[in-house]
Amino acid sequence: MTSTVIVGGVAGGMSTAARLRRRDEHMEIVVIEASGYVSFANCGLPYHVSGVIPERDSLLLQTPESLHERFNLDVRVNHLVTAIDRKAQEVTIRNLLDGSESRVHYDNLVLSPGATPIMPPIPGIERALTLRTVEDVDKILAHLTDDITSVALIGGGFIGLELAENLHHRGLKVTIIERAEQIMAPLDPEMAAIVTDHLRSKGLTILTGADTAQIGDKGLSLASGEIIDADLVIAAIGVKPESTLAREAGLAIGERGGIKVDEQQRTSDPAIFALGDAAEKRDAVSGDDVLVPLAQTANRHGRLVADIITGRDVHRTATLGTSIVGLFDLAAGSVGWNEKRAALMGQPTRIIHVHPANHAGYYPGAETIHLKLVVNPETDAILGAQAVGAAGVDKRIDVIATAMRGGLTATDLADLELAYAPQFGSAKDPVNFAGFVNDNMVAGERTFQWNQVDEAINDGWTLVDVRTPAEFAEGTITGAINLPLDDLRERFGELESKKTLVFCRVGLRGHVATSLLTHLGIETANLDGGFMTWEYAQKMEG
Amino acid sequence: MTSTVIVGGVAGGMSTAARLRRRDEHMEIVVIEASGYVSFANCGLPYHVSGVIPERDSLLLQTPESLHERFNLDVRVNHLVTAIDRKAQEVTIRNLLDGSESRVHYDNLVLSPGATPIMPPIPGIERALTLRTVEDVDKILAHLTDDITSVALIGGGFIGLELAENLHHRGLKVTIIERAEQIMAPLDPEMAAIVTDHLRSKGLTILTGADTAQIGDKGLSLASGEIIDADLVIAAIGVKPESTLAREAGLAIGERGGIKVDEQQRTSDPAIFALGDAAEKRDAVSGDDVLVPLAQTANRHGRLVADIITGRDVHRTATLGTSIVGLFDLAAGSVGWNEKRAALMGQPTRIIHVHPANHAGYYPGAETIHLKLVVNPETDAILGAQAVGAAGVDKRIDVIATAMRGGLTATDLADLELAYAPQFGSAKDPVNFAGFVNDNMVAGERTFQWNQVDEAINDGWTLVDVRTPAEFAEGTITGAINLPLDDLRERFGELESKKTLVFCRVGLRGHVATSLLTHLGIETANLDGGFMTWEYAQKMEG
């Protein structure tokens, strides 16, 4: 009888264990989990803080007992694997409750210990709570006594923002302190600005470019000298792979600290597999080794490792890092590379911003989706996408993720046949729309980005707002003149054939104007994403 | 100056016209529309009947005047093209208001006249109202006086059912009369049964296998002799391509009555293009010529034709026929082929039914999605999918449509990286889930379909319900014994190694039981889709 020892009993580890049993009734399967709980809903933890998920038990999807009953698993919670003896194929396991130690043999070892919160060496950091386990939630809830009225949250990533929303729902005054110039790193700054704007409208305080200098009893101080009063400080700065055990066992570790694995999740020791947040993934766009701490991938790789251990010759798929977060009335999702990443990698991009409605405008309740597409202009390959909006964001990100997996080009998006009824979409879906804009650019239409406007003006481009006089009066880009689209055919002479940068609200009328003026012999470009993208980008600062 | 005449000013025709102008400022563009309105929201019409879309004007997306102003189009409503002189390249146009006729030259002619409601030769059919144009809605609303309390709706397709819901919202007693054995032809019968069940629970009367014999003043009679009392009769039996003009002009017409076109939407006359509901499409699965009367495709082909006329060498994409309908609290969508179609074409299939939640079960508000996948067992290609559920149906259909377009296999669905946060999905999305089930079948797991149970029992299979005793007590399949999954390891001896067909609620525990029993040496199969698919299928009859 062979035996498999699995380190970590949450997403990846437990997927491995359950699948192993379905594939092999006779294998000995031991799962070692350092916390007191296995198979808990980590992505649900922030929502228990507010009571949106009222029952703590509903976070606990399985227990060691239920797993034993159904899958005949030997699950040991509150146990820590302290060492791997690779030669003897044994692990040393410490019982965290009584301190006793034992050694267990393995034929295959699966490392799925997850990640741990990053705790930078800020004076007083030990005062900050974190959120990663069920015990962490219990601790936060225990601290949220009636006299606590304000919380400072260090970190504007997914978990920090989810937690901020849920603390706000409890009536707390929440300040988010983000070291970078924007929250939500997976988004580009002008897209993150939409989220920032929404969170501020809900009453959250968001400080960007804010470096925490010291944490005290009554809050924290920033490097700028500013003092943030807070009854409680929580750190959600990010996570790092839990690779200490692997490192100490001499397994190869990647540059970013994740356990190195091959296309079958094998570490540098063929008897040892690694997966989940602790292991490196292969980036689908570049082929590089990356860290992508997402539950979906952990689960999938758990199933994969179980299949490989039980004799199937299957391989991992490279990762797109598709993700989403819901914050108050907004969702923000992304897939693949953002523009920042492409710039960092020296990859030229074609950028497209569109702001269509999530479903037919004539049907009640339509909401704007802000969608950004990042394209390789040489190959027309989709490098990535981002979307922010009140409804339908998840669908568009999933469709683009699937298109990327299928190797479809950005122009192919124009032809995707997506289900249309007025409650669900439009005859021209937002994804089709992005494809149309891409197709127009392939056919030669020139666009400028929001951050190229100043330069264009300096270069002698005339800025023309083709919206209605009423829209123009409500605010426009400084220096723009108003020439409404429907008057353009009569009044284009006023432009005196100067280089013309047109814009409208979202880019659609601008496209019509660009086509018209170009045919009339005027060198014209359209402002991508229109006034809306430009205006959100202005909100970034401060 | 070249000129293009476009016959039909709704989805396809108007997309052609607007795109033509963006591509060519100088072309003469004439749009001839027989009704009084152009560019109206046909898919929104049923919702104006109830007032869900309260403003009639919001259905009218453009007017001849607004189109002239923005796009310099010559749009003539209430005008009918009565003849095409292909030699002279002229059309004869009749003004339907004053009867006058004129002839207009074209360099390119675009036929997008749409489809007309099928009106079978039932005695009294002229009494039935239909719904296709804004005028039709006006007529229905004019008939819905206070003394009207009941409506008989002939036809259980998309428009009939949407109209039924909206008439029900107005407080009318609605009876749907469908000639086929099921409503919603794009779905297979056991999937349509879920919709039927829902509509009946809302108070609609649905008669299937019901052939209308005669329509009278006070309702209608069926071939069975049954009398259906109704103050108003509406026929929504389906549509046929409006190809009379093309036929009379000698253009090639396909077997199904649609105008034949090539990969660039050219008819048998190279100066004449056709698109929209009047034209044939290429089926993406089989490559056959088919009729797919969907707005999305009409719009897309309008853009395509404009590009081709203005010199781009672009080609159509074959159609998947992705569609969806919202009915009360349910959505029902489909893409590609259903099982019926595959059977008709002699195409072997692998069938998968799953019933996962639309998002994480631990987050409040999760709803079941009933998802069916139709797979080519030889190539693992996805032939089609159907989904029914309260939320998230559109997303899953769109993802599968995109996967089909990208040439992904059914097993590839297991690896799709879809955006997960507890409000939007699960770490294992319903689409992934269908992929997992497919992968299990590829790896050798055997399943039976709901309609194979009786045969299996006759063949000596023991039917084992692996749900809990409490679930078993609430209803099971006749002849099944109860052996709960968690007891199976101890009690499998009771099966005496007989061929065992296991089932649970949705198929998941059945899969675990199948794995277990197979490893224990018992020939085992799992009932695909579990008790839930089987139980819905029972509701089909009657």
TrEMBL record, chains A, B:
Residues 457-539 form the Rhodanese domain. Coiled coil: none annotated. GO terms for molecular function: oxidoreductase activity. Its cofactor is FAD. PROSITE patterns: RHODANESE_3. Keywords: FAD, Flavoprotein, Oxidoreductase, Redox-active center. Belongs to the class-III pyridine nucleotide-disulfide oxidoreductase family. This is CoA-disulfide reductase. The lineage of its organism: Bacteria, Bacillati, Actinomycetota, Actinomycetes, Mycobacteriales.
